[in-house]
Amino acid sequence: MSSAPLLSMRGIEKSFPGVHALRGVDLDLAAGEVLALLGENGAGKSTLMKVLGGAHAADSGDLVLDGRPARFRSPHDARAAGIAVIHQEFSLVPGLTAPENIFLGQESARAGFFPRGEERRRAAELFGRLGVAIDLDAPVSRLTTAQAQATEIARALARDARIIVMDEPTAALTTAETDRLFAIIRDLARRGIAVIHISHRLDEIFALADRVVVLRDGRNVGSRPVAGLGRGELIGMMVGRELAEEYPRRTVAAGGVRLAVQGLRRGRAVRDVSFAVRGGEILALAGLVGAGRTETLRLVFGADRRDAGEIAVDGRPLAIRSPRDAIAAGIGLLTEDRKLEGLVLGRSVLENFSLASLDRLSRAGFIDGRAERTAFDRHAGQLRIRVPHPAERAGNLSGGNQQKVVLARWLERDCEVFLFDEPTRGIDVGARHEIYLLMNELVARGKAVVMASSDLPEVLGMADRILVMHDGRVTGEIINGPGVTQEQVMRLAVA
Fold first, then answer.
1. Would 60 disulfide with which of 13, 79, 409, 431, CB 3.0-4.6 Å?
2. How far is CA 226 from each of CA 33, 214, 223, 229, 231, rounded to the nearest angstrom?
3. Is the model's pTM score more than 0.85?
4. What is the rounded distance in angstroms from the CA atom of residue 159 to the CA atom of residue 135?
5. Which class does domain 5-239 fall in?
6. List of the chain residues with pLDDT < 50
7. In this structure, are strands 194-198 and 34-38 parallel, antiparallel, or unpaired?
8. Are 174 and 288 in contact (CB under 8 A)?
9. Could you tell me the strand order of the sheet in which 194-198 lies?
């Protein structure tokens, strides 16, 4: 890895109406370096990368690339300079094949025709370099998430990218796919390509990165080599305060069974799943992607129609045919994809908060605005929701604050059973800790919590019991404790 900076960003300033997003941020990057860019939601990471990628123009500051001053007026300028940004939501055209996506905009016509055979050959070479097998004739819409991501990386290599920015690249990958991606990133670094890796998963940072740069409130907090950096020190840099424990402990005596599920079934996705969760208990559903965790929670909530099975709350059998029935029975679901299923992004924070409690916040068919605002303010204070105004569009909030709005919705409904599907995906470590504290508070009040999570440290850190699933079935149950390891869970997950 070269010691001379490939990239230097100095004193980068960027403001939007009402928001000072970047305050004199500095960043250096060497060729062949894997740099982790960290910080809480809203710290300025995405804005800084949009400046680097040409999507935003800095208000002031300098950018030097390979020893020469640079200024990007558009993403096209940044790409031409060898900078590729791979967003969490891919920018591929679903109906085109991988080769067509890779060379889109780079086609060279010969006698009025594009050399598709040559593009296909070059694409095969690129995927060979990455060690990824892909059907070159299939539209991207039929590829797995990992294959689509490899297509994005191949497109960057086809454009001779020297710097590749990856934003939450493992959010929807399996463990095996994540391992393969890390192998690709390490190989890119050996070839001299610099990688900026943005992630909220600290285990990834320690496994992959050479150095970390931490932002907080739009400012540099520090830069440290990963070697010798303690996990607690890194968390402290990110949140600006000491967290006594990443996964806060609790001492709650479990009560009676609040939720009982027997013989739940839907096609091959969920096959004869049974479990019970008591008040004061967190039950985790673990397993690989496609194991049936999300599908199980959706059946309990009535979001999907079950083929068979019985559901009871507090010993009372329920005929749940829709989410409306589940809500009336005291069940709330935080969906895996909060943007598509949990929130109406174009509507206000206040409207999203009230969705599950319209009957309680209305009088004579009209929303009681004062009662609605009072209820929201109460939960916003408790959950530390950072929002300029309740009329702000939900789509403008950070991921952590969006998740807290959904949480506030179910707290206002005063549910007895909470179903959390990937509760901290894409959320910074500070917001994670606040959600963990809330989960502990819920079970301390006798509520029942079922948590589906692909984050094994989170499962081991928060659950009282772990139900492991594979191919739609329950393959084992683990009573959590000090001696339980990730390996034990994984053995059941691949059974």
1. 13
2. 12, 12, 9, 5, 10
3. no
4. 21
5. alpha beta
6. 1-2, 109-112
7. parallel
8. yes
9. 83-86, 163-167, 194-198, 34-38, 211-216, 219-225
